[in-house]
Design brief:
The protein has 18 helices and 18 strands. With 496 residues, the chain is of the alpha/beta class. It has two domains: 267 residues, Rossmann fold (3-Layer(aba) Sandwich), CATH 3.40.50.2000; 188 residues, Glycogen Phosphorylase B (Rossmann fold). Helix 5 links the parallel strand 6 and strand 7. The structure holds adenosine-5'-diphosphate and alpha-D-glucopyranose (GLC).
């Protein structure tokens, strides 16, 4: 475990990292991983980073017996009183949990009930998270710790910079990171009062968005600095198509916006030590990877064979991930030839379509609907090829895991996929930079052509090995990106 204590020297910048998900206690996607791992890297780099998260049942359970650090009896508006619990993550990062059972003690995930319906009081659930973030940032009696920077993440914490702005009192600087611009936290205008925002906040240059209130817009409008999770995506979101309605505002704020690529936990995702694999390996022992393919085929009920490659997908099943393209070409998988394993959950229509696919093509396609961390690791190791045809992908962690696991990815050229995957053309192969396959057009034909190229290359064992090793060599740890966040924090603190 990295030594995270260096973050607590007297001169360390203090950063409160406010977020709606935190692995392993509450995870629906990459946001939870970033929340669990970036603060670790920040602390190693000398930043006193602490996390603020809602006390969902899993968080409460993990923090059982934790100290009550503060009590907020009147957060304002329609917010109920809360306790702030103080504990630490498994990696040793201090965490404050917003304990408010009426809003957070429920099953399901942070955003939806078990049937996939949005919680009807999401504005209050995440309004409260934002409110407590802003109060804690300005200094809460009992907390004995006041940050220099409030680092907010995605729409769930987007109101916090607005609260700081309208409080008018001296307050720390804020950073707002956009992990997923497709989710915006838009609520009816009449929630303004319950959220304890002043009527003047409801303006074009405030939180108003087409007659409604947008948490995402609030974050973009009022944070001192904006980031997103890859350089390419920082450009994309200033455009019409991938700006999701925020392109104009983001262009106005372009000087405050940077793209910083995510890293990941290279101890947890390491094929040489991964306990979820049946055989561990590194770039010098790639033959050992094959045992994981066999184990995966057995585990998901596919015929055990090495005559054709096994394509792997681990994903939230949402429109964003472009998996409808994969469904559209699925009947050609026999002709490639290849097998396919899909692990995912989310959109009920996509779940049904993938389940139907597996039923009709049992010999070639296996589909597991659900969230399964252990199986996700086995797929990264046991598949030959990883598929990510995303419509947009702010960063993407799975393609980076697959590079590390010697499982070259086939990706669409967007966001972090474009920044991490180098297409296997002759020049890139010769220069040792090729590590996967990239296609551009958002069509089934383009995906199929890329898969065709990939399968043909897989048959050339020498080239394939080279491609695998190129991917495995890259450094996707947080080190470099954590440094970039540190620089950003320092610039903001100096400018304050
Ligand atoms: P996003 O955040 O858009 O979902 P990322 O690629 O950044 O995409 O991160 C996804 C994370 O969630 C990865 O850690 C991935 O392994 C994990 N994940 C997604 N779906 C599942 C699933 N069904 N089972 C296990 N892990 C999953
Ligand atoms: C988002 C994005 C994904 C990114 C993750 C963590 O949910 O969809 O691309 O990797 O957040 O930043």
């Amino acid at each position: 475990m990295p030594d995270t204590r260096s973050g607590e020297r007297a001169d360390s910048p203090r950063v409160l990292f406010a977020v709606a998900e935190l692995a392993p206690w509450m995870k629906t996607g990459g946001l939870a991983e970033v929340a669990a791992t970036l603060p670790v890297a920040l602390r190693v780099a000398g930043v006193d980073a602490r996390i603020l998260v809602p006390a969902y049942p899993g968080v409460r359970e993990a923090l059982r017996g934790a100290r009550v650090a503060a009590e907020v009896t009147q957060p304002g508006g329609a917010y109920p009183p809360v306790l702030l619990l103080a504990g630490a993550t498994p990696a040793g990062v201090p965490v404050f949990a917003v304990d408010c059972p009426t809003l957070y003690a429920r099953g399901g995930d942070p955003y939806c009930d078990a049937a996939g319906r949005d919680w009807p009081d999401n504005h209050l659930r995440f309004g409260l998270l934002s409110k407590i973030a802003a109060l804690a940032a300005a200094g809460l009696p009992g907390l004995e710790w006041v940050p220099h920077i409030l680092h907010c993440n995605d729409w769930h914490t987007g109101l916090a910079p607005a609260y700081l702005h309208f409080a008018g009192t001296p307050h720390p600087r804020s950073v707002f990171t956009i992990h997923n611009i497709g989710y915006q936290g838009i609520f009816p205008r009449d929630t303004l009062e319950a959220l304890a925002l002043p009527p003047r906040a409801f303006a074009m240059d405030g939180v108003e968005y087409h007659g409604k209130l947008s948490f995402l817009k609030a974050g973009i409008q009022y944070a001192d600095a904006l980031t997103t999770v890859s350089p390419t995506h920082a450009r994309e979101i200033q455009g019409e198509q991938l700006g999701f309605g925020m392109g104009g505002l983001l262009r106005e704020r372009a000087a405050a916006l940077t793209g910083i690529l995510n890293g990941f936990d290279t101890e947890q995702w390491n094929p040489a030590t991964d306990m979820h694999l049946v055989q561990r390996y590194d770039s010098g022992t790639l033959e050992a990877k094959a045992a994981n393919k066999t184990a995966l085929q057995r585990r998901v009920g596919l015929p055990v064979t090495d005559d054709m490659p096994l394509l792997g997908v681990v994903s939230r099943l949402t429109h964003q991930k472009g998996l409808d393209l994969l469904l559209a070409v699925a009947r050609k998988i026999r002709e490639l030839p290849a097998q396919l394993v899909v692990l995912g959950s989310g959109d009920k229509a996509l779940e049904r379509q993938f389940t139907a696919l597996a039923r009709t093509r049992r010999d070639r396609c296996a589909v597991i609907i659900g969230f399964d961390e252990a199986l996700a690791h086995l797929i990264e190791a046991g598949a030959d090829i990883f598929v990510m045809p995303s419509r947009y992908e702010p960063c993407g962690l799975n393609q980076m895991y697959s590079l590390r696991y010697g499982t070259p990815p086939v990706v669409r050229a967007t966001g972090g996929l474009a920044d991490t995957v180098v297409d296997c053309d002759e020049t890139a192969l010769a220069s040792g930079t090729a590590n996967g396959f990239v296609f551009t057009e958002r069509t089934p034909q383009a995906l199929l052509a890329a898969l065709g190229r990939t399968v043909a290359t897989w048959r050339d064992r020498t080239r394939w090995r080279q491609l695998q090793r190129n991917g495995m060599r890259a450094d996707f740890s947080w080190r470099a990106s954590a440094q970039r966040y540190c620089e950003l924090y320092r610039t903001l603190v100096v400018a304050a």
